[in-house]
Recover the amino acids of this structure.
């Protein structure tokens, strides 16, 4: 992984560092030059997924017997860090590798893993997870999407919104009620193979404030048959499975938050050293130096906290409250740091051709998805 001013994190071994170099090169050659086009079309090219898969950048943590990298969360985090450092948010790795593949690894049957994971690792199958609905985001147990059992299949009815990778996904984990009277115990996870699924419809790819290259979509289900063997885990166990995986999802977001703010700071330091005002570089001004000194301190402290969380997660000791702390605090820092960095660019910072404007706009969603930051604080407060 790119060595920062804080040095190489302890959780990155030599193998991880080598993987980071492959990832860095991949994003610089296959993604960054195409930002504008991906933004316009609101998704990355399908070939990008396949190239990432061929280089071993997808599903690093999936065991090699299922086609994955056979690594640990640290390897996944290395790739996510390099992506964020490159300023890319189009390729939906957070969800694909960081979330969906792990649901299958942890909760899938042997048959399910053998069927889907090799394709996810190669990039032939793009994964997504559909929890949120127009009437149920934070309040997940109120989802209205129904899965009604009939013989050897369920019939899926309802709609989802804000689904990352929604426009491109081939495999969709759908959160649905199998027993509406049972509250959270009536929620199940069904794996929908979207290709030619009757009654499945993708709505528009949504227009967003940032993350323009990321295909975030509305999805509709109208009597969509899903074979019973596509049920993930036990019927009614979906809510517990979702809760169990939350620390990982929060850490995935935190990893990208820190890498993105490190990049924002580097961009800004380079800029203020070359931009001249009143006959001297901006960096000569005490305000600018002090501003950057403060930002560098925030970024360094963020890195140290994140590294501690990643080490704990890899050791199996990261508790949910600390994962929530990492998610809210690091994404808040990401937004604050990119905002203050952008300010130092003056009007140029507001122009889309400058990376800092992308880093600023893309940061904002991080405080919302993966559980809003308010929810994080609520969860933390319950442990106090
Ligand atoms: C770019 C993007 C990508 C996304 N990708 C996905 C995806 O792949 N899959 C998916 O399922 N969803 C996805 N989401 C949806 C996201 O998870 C939800 O937007 C989020 O959970 C919030 O739900 P909501 O939008 O319905 O807001 P609401 O639940 O309506 O919340 C509105 C406000 O009320 C606050 N609030 C709600 N409850 C409480 C409470 N108890 N205490 C204090 N404050 C509270 C919230 O924090 C928020 O500030 C994505 C969203 C975005 C923006």
């Amino acid at each position: 992984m790119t060595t920062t001013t804080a040095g190489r994190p302890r959780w990155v071994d030599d193998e991880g560092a080598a993987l980071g170099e492959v990832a860095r090169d991949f994003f610089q050659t296959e993604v960054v030059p195409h930002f504008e086009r991906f933004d316009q079309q609101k998704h990355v090219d399908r070939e990008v997924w396949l190239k990432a898969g061929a280089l071993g950048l997808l599903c690093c943590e999936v065991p090699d017997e299922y086609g994955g990298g056979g690594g640990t969360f640290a390897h996944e985090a290395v790739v996510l860090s390099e992506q964020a450092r490159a300023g890319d948010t189009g390729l939906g790795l957070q969800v694909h590798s960081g979330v969906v593949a792990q649901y299958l690894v942890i909760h899938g049957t042997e048959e399910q893993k053998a069927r889907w994971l090799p394709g996810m690792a190669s990039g032939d199958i793009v994964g997504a997870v559909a929890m949120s609905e127009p009437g149920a985001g934070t309040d997940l147990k109120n989802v209205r999407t129904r899965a009604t059992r009939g013989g050897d299949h369920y019939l899926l009815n309802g709609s989802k919104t804000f689904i990352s990778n929604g426009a491109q996904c081939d495999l969709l984990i759908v959160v649905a009620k199998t027993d509406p009277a049972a509250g959270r115990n009536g929620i199940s996870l069904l794996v929908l193979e979207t290709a030619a699924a009757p009654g499945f419809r993708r709505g528009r790819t949504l227009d967003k404030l940032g993350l323009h290259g990321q295909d975030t979509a509305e999805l509709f289900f109208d009597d969509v048959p899903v074979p019973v063997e596509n049920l993930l885990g036990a019927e009614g166990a979906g809510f517990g499975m979702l809760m169990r995986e939350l620390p990982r999802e929060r850490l995935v977001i935190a990893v990208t938050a820190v890498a993105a703010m490190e990049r924002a700071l580097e961009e800004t330091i380079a800029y203020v050293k070359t931009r001249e005002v009143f006959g001297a570089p901006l960096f000569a001004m005490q305000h600018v130096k002090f501003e950057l000194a403060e930002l560098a301190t925030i970024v360094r402290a963020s890195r140290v906290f994140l590294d501690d969380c990643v080490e704990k997660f890899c050791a199996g000791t990261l508790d949910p409250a600390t994962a929530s702390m990492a998610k809210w605090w690091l994404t808040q820092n990401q937004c604050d740091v990119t905002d203050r960095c952008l300010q130092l660019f003056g009007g140029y910072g507001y122009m889309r051709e400058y990376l800092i404007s992308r880093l600023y706009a893309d940061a904002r969603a991080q405080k919302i998805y993966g559980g809003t930051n308010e929810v994080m604080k609520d969860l933390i407060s319950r442990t106090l």
